[in-house]
Design a protein that fits this description.
Radius of gyration: 17 Å
Order of helices and strands: HHHHH
Structural class: mainly alpha
Strand content: under 5%
Largest sheet: none
Number of strands: 0
Helix content: over 70%
């Protein structure tokens, strides 16, 4: 248990630093009004978690890679990659309706959550 938490923490630190690094790099090349860094890490994270998923599924890498890379690194780099993998699982399982509801609920719920958080905080503060 402690070992798994250590792996998640180490992976998370690397993922968070990597996300910040991407945002610094893209700051110089991106259009200011376009969230290029967020889009980039979401796409890169989704690609990476897909690769890790297959390698883990095939037993090509040690199971600790899940804690270090999938949960830790990609969890801090972008949670969109986890959302993407979960949605793909539903689609591959033939659960098109469930995947559509999950995707819509995630988008609407998250944007709505930000709106409520911003609105309430602006009122209070």
């Amino acid at each position: 248990m402690i070992w798994q938490l250590t792996l998640v923490a180490c992976g998370g630190a690397l993922g968070a630093c990597s996300r910040y690094g991407v945002s610094i790099l893209l700051r110089y090349w991106a259009i200011e009004s376009w969230p290029a860094a967020t889009l980039s890490v979401n796409i890169l994270g989704s690609l990476g978690i897909g690769v890790a998923y297959v390698l883990l599924d095939r037993g090509a890498v040690h199971p600790d890679v899940r804690a270090l890379i999938v949960i830790g690194f990609f969890g801090a780099f972008t949670t969109f990659s986890t959302f993407s993998l979960e949605t793909l699982h539903m689609l591959e399982g033939g659960e098109l309706g469930k995947a559509a509801v999950y995707a819509a609920a995630s988008l609407l719920g998250c944007v709505g959550g930000v709106m409520v958080g911003v609105s309430v905080t602006r009122l209070v503060n």
